[in-house]
Protein 1
Amino acid sequence: MSVLRDTIARLIVEANYNIPADVLQALRDAVEREESPLGRRTLEQLVRNYEVAAAERRPVCQDSGVAVVLLEVGQDVHWTGGSMQEAVYDGVREGTRVGYLRWSVTGDPTRMLKLSGQETPAVIHVDIVPGSDVKIMFASKGFGAENMSALKMFVPADGVPAITQFVLDTVDRAGANACPPIIVGLGIGGTFESAALLAKKAVLRPLDVRSARADIRQLEGELLERVNELGIGPQGFGGRVTALGVNIEVYPTHIAGLPVAVNLGCHSTRRMSATL
Amino acid sequence: MGVIQLKCQNGIAEADLDRLRAGDSVELTGQVISVRDASAARLAATVDAGQPLPISIEGQVLYAVGPSPPKPGQIIGSAGPTTTSRMARFLPALFKAGARAIIGKGEVHGEEAAPFLSHGAVYFGAIGGLGALLAKQISSTRIVAYEDLGPEALYALQIFAFPAVVIIDRHGGNFHETARARWRKA
């Protein structure tokens, strides 16, 4: 468990100092594509922010977010030396401390308890898979975009047109608050809670990885185009680049249902993976 | 695109607020007072109770921010703006206590925008997610009160050439509304 703890501590620091290469490249490409002068200037400053943060080892954003840890644990893995959950929590606590990250999490969402303000629980999702590796996808999820995310239970007859409209409405309503240019994670199917997890996995998927399904890939492209027609632009200052990508994850669902979740990610997407 | 230089060391001048128009690019130099969910709530409750505030915000510019901690040798950690609308319900009290403007990020519309117009306050939008760069525009920090709130403590910050865009002006303009409408297709 000490290996897991130390890895989490390293990932939270490095993810907060270094924006992923695919996101930085997408922002550089967006500078070329953006037609609005203020939008372009905003994108240039964002690129500069990420270069400075990496060079000076500063958090890219003061909101170090909630630590979201997606674990794929091989079924042949046997953990020793304590609790997996505690190892993750300890790693987040250690990384937050040594990396001078903000204590951005409250231990009590009702705020009725008086706590230290240095609680560091993480949100952990575990998939058990064949093999003997442990794959970690670590993310620090900022709440500007998280707060603007949405979930709706549609019915089968609503279909793809309703999904499309829901994505557009969610992005439009989020506007500048989600810190555009955003990444849109769309989860379709499963159940109420699994649609949200699909959307989280989608929003954390690298921008250069497209869906394995051709029809879903096409929908990703169409939705990105429609989202960018909303005119929100970088930081809601108007422009052509509202989103850097739309990623979709799907899962079978009930014959009576169509759960759809839209998880928004700000441009300051912090994620980093590791394999143990 | 010209950039308007604004001074806010001893509050911001009424004449400066009058001449700003939604969409103007500005750079602010002087003092700002940090606010965040917990500190804004406490300030507003103090105003509503008729009690004195720990620092006068008369004429002052507020900054919606909860910075990350400084590394040794740094003045401040990363310090970009947070979402203004989360604090909107507290703004009428803060404007009543004399605050003239707030720097933040995100959109403010309708009922949440009304107190800006009725109090003649201005909303400056800074770029969200620019925390590493914006920290370089802060030359000193001082905790004024509410230290128990950690990153949400009340700070007096000295800023210089701090870049922002006028979102809500004194003349009914809302830059997010006009900018989004202008670039929207269909």
Protein 2
Amino acid sequence: MSWKDEVDQIAERRRLAVLQGGEAAIAKHHDKGKLTVRERIDAVLDPDTFDEIGRGAGEAEVDENGNIVEFSPANFVLGFGKIDGRRVVVGGEDFTLKGGSPTEAGLRKSVYAEDLAVKYRLPLVRLHEGAGGSVGKSKHASLPSAVFNAPRFRSVAQAMATAPVASAALGAVAGLPAARLVSSHFSVMSNSTAQIMIAGPAVVERAMGEKLTKDELGGAGVHTKNGTVDNAAADEPEAMEQIRAFLSYLPSNVYELAPVSLCNDPVDRREERLLEIIPKERRRAYDMRRIIKSVMDEGSVFEMGRGYGKSQIMCLARMNGQPVGVWGNDPKVLAGAMTADGANKARRFMELCEVFHLPIICFVDEPGFMIGSQSEREATIRHGANAALTSALLNVPWASVMVRKSFGVAQVAHYGPDAYVLAWPSAETGPLPVEGGVAVAFHREIAAAEDPDAKRRELEEMLAARQSPFPRAEALAVHELIDPRETRPMLARWIDRVQPLLPSLLGPASFAIRP
Amino acid sequence: MAEDIHCETAGTIWKLWVKEGDTVTDGQELFIMEVMKMEVPYEAPCDGVVKRLSIAEGDVVKEDDLAMVIG
């Protein structure tokens, strides 16, 4: 007697497990321009590296002889794999089975994903398409979960504190999967196929009387502008590319340093166009992204959250191969002023860098907090103070380049804990920009003048001269006043200097990171 | 590869320097918007030709409006 019958049955179950929802369900899924979860996993991983966990989980029906007649696999596929040769945990709902709404085995596997990431200290990649629980279509009534079970989101929080978590919305994502989608360090949604909703159109119409399509309710047009997800991708393959790119800047966990890559871009490269990139005319904006791209390693800039908090630009990038976080103001949007959503975006980005020990480089052109009634209604001062305090308590090395304005309380957030500060000749700094400050401080003098406008301009020019960076350099209020073309060489030397500090930072952050 | 240029914010098209069919080079100024008393220039993100132009001087534009396509 051997175990051949049982082994045959294992093989049969394995064969059935990968059939997912069956040919018809898969064809319908493909017709909507979507990949199945197994195709998604193959697309995000290096070829042939998927190492599945719990393939046999599901519901089996057997005949009186014990032969399997039907097998419905768990509708969450989970396992290990590699991205750029580094091991990760990967998982996603199988929409071809019950529309991704968790089966018992599916739910068990899905919540195990975070446990695996924490236990093995590995990055977690979640590829979401599915809804939360549904009201009773299950064949068997199951026991409700025990009152003493660990909170479901504890492991989600622990995963975020341990290893990079990157997630994608690739179809409709609602309920529990939506909450897990955003409980990540980086999230991306496919423009063509994804929506993210707390509850879908039918539930919303019944409860609220709002009649909306899935895209109107939770498409990329909504969620890339409110910060629910960081980025949009044109389609599923681009979403996978973005996840792979994001992870390339990060260590596998908080106990390791980020991978330094070989840099072919000379560290002493002086970019000529930086000499004239800041217009002498103070009302004229310029392209901050061009500055960032000119200074960082060529082709290394990966922007996150471009659609919201748009006055603040956040990127991962490399300096001489060392991954860093880059934060710049965008003078094209509200003159780069700190808004409530910009402050939230900055706070979240700083925490990402702190948790994974990435040095931060800041290109500062901060005119101050956004002013006006909308800004007050949005509680900008509270969100802005949050960013300023977050910055002050970080431990990662920080360098700031004052490219133009640096004013008010909002500027404080741009200088981190103990920044290495470089100033361009175009730098101006003070409690507030002269244009606003003069009108307030000299209002009597201006009103009394024969030509108030001329008086105001005269005062503005006089005070603007006082905001020049030369006295700051003389007072060692900045480390160096530099030729803008020296920015890359100077920052490359700084990044080399801080290398010995990085290992001492390793380990969990002193705070628990939140989504 | 075609690059779409969208307006980052609402504003007014103050100066437009190119027309459809013009050859442009990476970094060349294409148009200037006026936004809250600031002049906001937009540059070509790459070398190419202005394939499609959707703005004219004096236009009031909204955030995310397509300004032009460089291809």
